[in-house]
Structure formats: C-alpha cells, structure tokens
Amino acid sequence: PSSITAFASRSATRIVWSGDADESRYDVDALVAAGVKNAVAVPIDGTGHPWGVMTVLGVDSRYLSSATGSSASIVDISAAGPPVLVPDNPMLDTGALDTVSDVVSAAVHRVGVESELRYRSLRDPLTGLPNRALAYDRIESAVERGAAKATTTAVMLIDLDDFKSINDGLGHEAGDSALVSIGNRLTRASRPGDTVARLGGDEFVAVCENLSGPEESI
C-alpha cells in the first residue's frame, strides 16, 4: 500500500522516481535495498479509477529520461531482417510508456464495452432476467447435458392470468413493477443452477435440469 505503484494508482498520475532515497510520498526502501536506481509508474486509465498501473524499474540511472525522443542510429540487426532504429544514447522514454498505457486502457475499455453490450443483448431490460434468446440457448444446452447424463430437464412455461387488467386499471408502471416482482419471486423459488427467464410480455420460463424424473419438477 505504500509502494510507488500504489501511490500512482491512488493519485492517478504518472510517477517518475530517479533514485532519491529521501522520497517521502511513497516507500522506496525496498527499491533502494534491491539496487533499483529509478522507476516509472504509469496508471492505466479506467472509468473513475485506474484499472491498474504499469511499473518499470531500472538498475542503471543512465537509462531514464522524460524526453519524448532522442537521436537514433540505423542498425541492421540481421541480414534478413529490416533495419531498426536504436538511440545513440539509449534512454527509457517515459513518454512512450504513457502511449502504451493509453493503448492498454483503450483495449480494456473496449473489452468492457463489448462485454456490456453482449450482456444487454441477452437480458430482459425490465427484469434483468435472461431474455428469450438466452433462454432458448439455456434450454438447448440443458437438454443436451440431460441426454448425455440420462437425467431429466424440465421446461416450465409460466403465464400470468389477467395481467392486462393491471395495466388497464393501475397503469403500465404498476404492470412493470408486478413483472419485476414476479421475476424476483420465481428466481428465489428456483434452485442454484436453474434458469428463470422472461420470454416477453407476461410470459416467463423456468429451466430445471439434473432431475431424476418429471415428478421432481413439481
């Protein structure tokens, strides 16, 4: 909790330590004892808080610079490979670490967005239960597993009688509240591993697998 990495995470700021043993913002005793001469900690930007911190430690004080560029020489590292640029005075470009951090941040953010979109595409927006598409997928998978293990899978369709009277008499907000309440009650009544889904309107489905027979579903 007192390391340079933790400090960079808390402050959400890039931290460059150039070997000062008297640094008081974070603990450097372990770094000094290990012979570390410099360190750079770059937060990976998240939503409201860093997702993590990329930390680079150096044991040679010559290889640390906040410069964004330096002179370079062309070196042909192999007869078959392309020529590469190598700095005349090799330095750790901390600005490049910021770029890498930004790339990682963008990648993590994209994964998060894609995961959220995938979640929403398979969930009923009102109740948060699995929707029709996910329910059908769960049914298919459960039936296949049941056939392989010689167990019974129960698919129970649940329709609310006279639900239209709630919407007509009390309004759609009351109807939505009733649907959410019913979804919660069905979920509480189900076993761990069962699936309760909303197919649409006032229709729900419960998928129960690993039953010894049809009578167990009652």
Number of strands: 8
The largest sheet, given as strand count, sense and whether it forms a barrel, is: 3 strands, antiparallel
Give helix and strand order, one letter per element, not per position.
HEHEEEEHHEHHEE
- Name the shape in a single word: elongated
Distance between the termini: 54 Å
Structural class: alpha+beta
Summarize the structure in words:
By secondary structure, the protein is α+β, with helices and mostly antiparallel strands. It contains 6 helices and 8 strands, in the order αβαββββααβααββ. The protein has a 3-stranded antiparallel beta sheet, sandwiched between helices. A hairpin with a 2-residue loop joins β7 (195-200) and β8 (203-211). The protein starts with a helix and ends in a 7-residue tail after the last strand.
Topology at a glance:
Elements: H1 4-11, E1 15-17, H2 29-33, E2 38-44, E3 52-58, E4 72-75, E5 84-87, H3 94-121, H4 132-149, E6 152-159, H5 164-170, H6 172-189, E7 195-200, E8 203-211
Antiparallel strand pairs: 1-2, 2-3, 4-5, 6-8, 7-8
Features:
single chain, 218 residues, alpha+beta, three-stranded antiparallel β-sheet, 39% helix, 22% strand, elongated
In short:
With about 220 residues, this protein is an alpha+beta fold.
